[in-house]
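Example (one chain per record):
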Amino acid sequence: MATEEPSPQPVSRRPADRIQAMPGGMTAVGERATWIAGLVLSISAFTDWYAGSGAVGPTIGVIGWHTGTLGKLVFFIGLAVIALVALREAGIELPPTVPESLIVIALGSLSTIFVLIRLISIPDEFLPASGRGIGIWISLLASLAVIGAGLLTASEEL
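Predicted structure:
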């Protein structure tokens, strides 16, 4: 007696049968990008914004936190972006008249302006460190990433 092998079942290609890449769907991409950009922005305030050396002496680096009020504001803007995402994850949402993406874009624009001010104008008290360090470029890219994450979140909200 020959045993009959079961015929293979057809594979379903419907969208409902696919495994989602991220829990939460596409909304998680914007929130994750916002969270990561805010984290990098807040950490970048503790990287070297200015570097250089005098005629005699070691090479010095000045971190963003020590560049005055603008460096501190960049740090707190990064924390505010992280707090927005954390509040949303905790179930606390902003009123519908104030979209979260608009606030993220505004915070990213504000931090971009602050970093550009420090990029263009080096305070006189840091003159031996007259060159720009890698940290100020990281801060600029993180500020632009916050804007991009806000735009991504805005496109997902529509």
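Caption: The longest strand covers residues 48-53.
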